[in-house]
From TrEMBL:
Keyword vocabulary terms for this entry: Membrane, Transmembrane, Transmembrane helix
Leader sequence residues: none
Pfam families associated with the record: DUF3043 (PF11241)
InterPro entries assigned to the protein according to its UniProt record, in alphabetical order: DUF3043
Organism: Virgisporangium aurantiacum
Lineage of producing organism: Bacteria, Bacillati, Actinomycetota, Actinomycetes, Micromonosporales
Protein name (record): DUF3043 domain-containing protein
Transmembrane segments: 110-135, 141-158
């Protein structure tokens, strides 16, 4: 007859059920808990981590200051693009490939009109009644030479603009009269003050 004490000892020594490892395949139909998912799945880094994000303004004064700085930066960027000849930021009078060509035609030349306003100032001073008669006569002669040289220079610019328009833009609808005036006005402006800035050097050949 088996002993009762022996059976009790055998029951106590029975092995505990093994817990499945994390790497084992679980039977189908079982849904993992959030805790298990958190243990098995590592947190992935954000695709676009925020680095150096600007803190919100502390008050209205700070917000206004930032707004002014942003507007100042935008104006500076637009002006830089305009001076570089970016067609998106140019004034209406400067837009278009035809006017870009006209600017190149003017900028490659040493125009007499560039010195027109400086010469006009000298003539104005020299022709005053307080000056001697000889100075007044020289000033009047200088004025006539400046006017004649500017006129001849404008005619030559107009002829070159017309020729290049026929070669490069034969189907353009731009009016030649407006292009002539545009070339003349740019020729009268000091080279450093021209907008957009010249992109060709004096004497440079154009394609």
């Amino acid at each position: 007859m088996p002993s009762l004490f022996k059976r009790k000892t055998v029951e106590e020594a029975a092995p505990e059920p093994e817990t499945p490892d994390e790497g084992e395949v679980r039977p189908r139909g079982r849904t993992l808990s959030k805790r298990e998912l958190g243990q098995q799945t590592k947190k992935r880094p954000s695709a676009n981590p925020r680095t150096g994000s600007t803190a919100p303004p502390a008050d209205r004064k700070e917000a206004l200051k930032r707004s002014r700085e942003k507007a100042r930066e935008d104006r500076a960027e637009r002006r830089a693009a305009m001076m570089a000849g970016d067609d998106r930021y140019l004034l209406a009078r400067d837009k278009g490939p035809e006017r870009a060509m006209v600017r190149d035609v003017v900028d490659r030349r040493l125009t007499i009109g560039t010195w027109f306003f400086g010469g006009a100032l000298i003539v104005l001073i020299g022709s005053s009644a307080a000056m001697p008669a000889i100075v007044q006569r020289v000033s009047n002669l200088l004025w006539a030479l400046l006017a004649l040289g500017t006129l001849v220079d404008s005619i030559l610019l107009g002829r070159e603009v017309k020729r290049r328009m026929r070669e490069q833009f034969p189907k353009s609808t731009a009016k030649l009269t407006s292009l002539y005036l545009y070339a003349s006005m740019r020729g009268l402006t000091f080279r450093r003050l021209r907008v957009p800035k010249p992109r060709v050097k004096i004497g440079q050949k154009l394609d």
